Amino acid sequence: xxxxxxxxxxxxxxxARLILEPGIRVVHINLEYDxxxxxxxxxxxxxxxxxxxxxxxxxxxxxxxxxxxxxxxGFPGAFSSTIHKQIGLKERCRLLRAGKAGTVxxxxxxxxxxxxxxxxxxVRP
Length: 125
Hints:
Blueprint: E1 2-6, H1 10-20, E2 25-29, H2 41-56, E3 61-69, E4 75-77, H3 80-98, E5 102-111, E6 115-116, E7 121-123
Parallel strand pairs: 1-2, 1-3
Antiparallel strand pairs: 3-4, 3-5, 5-6, 5-7
């Protein structure tokens, strides 16, 4: 069995292979496409998988993730990559400290096969 895994992120590809192989072969597809913008990562993953699947005329898995900081009311959430590109890691760390610590929940959602890996990290000011 094999899956077509669409990503530009070598870390996501490495993780998918670590989880799925050798039982399921992960075929990497490095494809440019316009990612859906939405506050819900499940919607982003589903819509992106549908769009890319139609482009390639074959089933694919598209992974999306977000960083949800409870002390910042879930910010930056599904927009963590966009926010990171705009303000950088140093500013994101400053926001974490300004939020008086709390729980940080990185959340990943992959579609076509549902792979969810919630993890919680404690952050101290």
